[in-house]
Amino acid sequence: MADVTLNAVRKDYDDTTALDGVSLTVSDGEILGVLGPSGCGKTTTLRTVAGFETPTDGTVRFDGEDVTNVPPENRNVGLVFQEYALFDNMTVAENVAFGLKMRGVGKRERRNRAEELLEMLDIGEMGDRDPTTLSGGQQQRVGLARALAIEPNILLLDEPMTGLDAQLKARLRTEIGALLAELDVTGLYVTHDQEEAMVMCDRVAVLNEGRVEQVGTPREIYESP
Ligand code: ADP
Ligand code: ADP
Fold first, then answer.
1. Which residue among 12, 16, 20 has the greatest number of ligand 1 atoms within 8 angstroms of its CB, and so is best to mutate?
2. Which residue(s) pair with 156 in the sheet?
3. How far apart, in Å, do the first and last CA atoms of the chain sit?
4. Which ligand is nearest to the CA of 18?
5. Is the ipTM, as predicted for this complex, more than 0.85?
6. How many Å lie between the centroid of ligand 1 and the Cα of residue 158?
7. At a CB cut-off of 8 Å and minimum separation 6, what does 83 contact?
8. pTM value?
9. What sign for the dihedral angle of Cα 141, 142, 144, 148?
10. Which residue has its alpha carbon closest to ligand 1 atom 16?
11. What is the mean pLDDT of each run of 10 residues along the chain (225 residues)?
12. Helix, strand, or coil here: 102?
């Protein structure tokens, strides 16, 4: 895991400024929540850290190293985005091991890592299953295991619990929050849900119209007038 810094990141599209000078630091082992109204730049921030978008101006650094122009495949980031569905032509374990296979990790090690992660996420018996036969909450855990398998510099989560029922969300945020803390994961976590931010994030940044309006602990942010 790495320290990740955005310095004065600007992103212009033809007729919109999505990010208007965003500066943020995510410290090693910290989960930083990203909050704000629709269109404020949350997804663009994550996509810029992942390398899918190149800033119009400003820099992105991992552990001090400038990665602004490094392509996504060389950034080693873990993604849990809604559009990153599981591969339905692979078993659960193959899904988890996929990134390792791409990196040339041997079969035995891939298997051990996949098993270990599935155990940690409490779906240890599901390695041989077809992911489409899993519940939404179980699929979410597999997605997280797949993202963590590559030991990413940073984990990027974009509203991963959307679509799950309230009871399951409450359970997952507690369990996954504890796991991310235990594994010392560095993460950026986009959410609209106050409870999720309170449980899972060390600090949160509030964006508005492409700018960082406030950064603080969830308590500071939600209790401020
Ligand atoms: P959020 O995730 O907070 O809803 P986004 O980062 O998706 O916000 O979008 C920020 C702004 O940039 C919005 O005004 C959006 O319409 C615009 N935007 C995002 N992606 C593109 C794109 N590919 N082309 C043009 N405008 C975009
Ligand atoms: P190949 O990579 O040659 O296609 P497999 O289809 O057997 O081999 O497995 C793909 C990946 O999934 C491998 O990394 C393997 O270690 C892992 N894997 C397969 N089944 C399991 C399982 N039940 N539990 C954990 N890992 C598994």
1. 16
2. 79, 188
3. 34
4. 1
5. no
6. 14
7. none
8. 0.87
9. positive
10. 39
11. 94 96 96 95 97 98 97 95 86 96 94 95 95 92 95 94 88 90 93 90 97 96 84
12. helix
